[in-house]
């Protein structure tokens, strides 16, 4: 029986997916290479790095500029299908992700998935987890503005508030591996942990940086939320809204 986290400053953890829970970036990059080359263009590692953590609509535009003569919707569907095929062969879990998810589940801390991948891929990953860790799944095809805009994170918080109106951004911590994702989480006002993977993330006092999720515990996330709640009590934090991302 899960015991509700009623007295903890941490009520929810908001998880990015690609690069944070699963190492799907090599699948995405391989799919990009194949698609560009099929249309007579050339794709490089440097160009691929520009797309890490970005919305699929943004990525589709970059691929069109690289010579892919398809509509954005067809590009997104083609890439997603290739990544799903890779995941069905082997799910490349990131170190420590499943262990931390399970510890949060046992502690009664709610979790939401906040990813720019679309529903089909997110459902594929969630289906491979041993328990229903995620109460809500916010995907790139359910928001108007993709990361680095904060809409996806603000949407997740609003969904969590449905059954707990007392929950605020001060009770949440976001886990992200990419610069656009970290920017989105920070702009939403949620305390953010960066776990750089494919692309480096510059140090910034607005977020915490961990080398890996391996060995990380719920108590460490509680401490981040506690620190945030202490700062929030001074009135020094500002809230972002769906229509206006925080500066920076």
What does this structure look like?
This protein is of the alpha/beta class and 248 residues long. 42% of the residues lie in helices and 10% in strands. The protein has nine helices and six strands, in the order βαααααβαβαβαββα. A six-stranded parallel beta sheet has the order 3-2-1-4-5-6, sandwiched between helices. Helix 8 links the parallel strand 4 and strand 5. It is globular and about 60 Å long. The chain starts with 11 loop residues before the first strand and ends in a 16-residue tail after the last helix. The model is unreliable at 1-6 and 233-248 (pLDDT under 50).
- Largest sheet report: 6 strands, parallel
E-strand count: 6
Overall morphology: globular
Helix content: 40-55%
The spatial strand order of the largest sheet comes to: 3-2-1-4-5-6
Number of helices: 9
Structural class: alpha/beta
């Amino acid at each position: 029986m899960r015991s509700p986290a009623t007295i903890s400053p941490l009520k929810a953890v908001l998880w990015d997916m690609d690069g944070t829970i699963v190492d799907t970036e090599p699948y995405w990059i391989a799919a990009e290479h194949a698609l560009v080359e099929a249309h007579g263009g050339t794709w490089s590692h440097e160009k691929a790095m520009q797309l890490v953590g970005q919305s699929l609509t943004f990525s589709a535009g970059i691929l069109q500029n690289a010579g892919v003569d398809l509509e954005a919707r067809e590009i997104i569907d083609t890439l997603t299908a290739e990544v799903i095929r890779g995941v069905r062969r082997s799910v490349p879990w990131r170190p420590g992700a499943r262990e931390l998810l399970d510890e949060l589940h046992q502690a009664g801390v709610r979790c939401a998935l906040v990813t720019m991948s679309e529903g089909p891929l997110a459902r594929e990953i969630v289906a491979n987890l041993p328990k229903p860790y995620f109460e809500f799944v916010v995907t790139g095809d359910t928001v108007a503005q993709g990361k680095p805009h904060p809409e996806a994170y603000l949407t997740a918080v609003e969904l969590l508030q449905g059954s707990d109106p007392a929950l605020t951004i001060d009770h949440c911590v976001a886990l992200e591996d990419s610069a656009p994702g970290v920017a989105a989480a920070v702009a939403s006002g949620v305390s953010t942990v960066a776990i750089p993977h494919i692309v480096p993330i510059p140090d910034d006092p607005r977020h915490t940086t961990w080398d890996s999720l391996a060995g990380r515990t719920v108590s460490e996330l509680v401490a981040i939320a506690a620190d945030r709640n202490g700062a929030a009590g001074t009135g020094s934090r500002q809230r972002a809204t769906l229509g206006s991302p925080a500066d920076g």
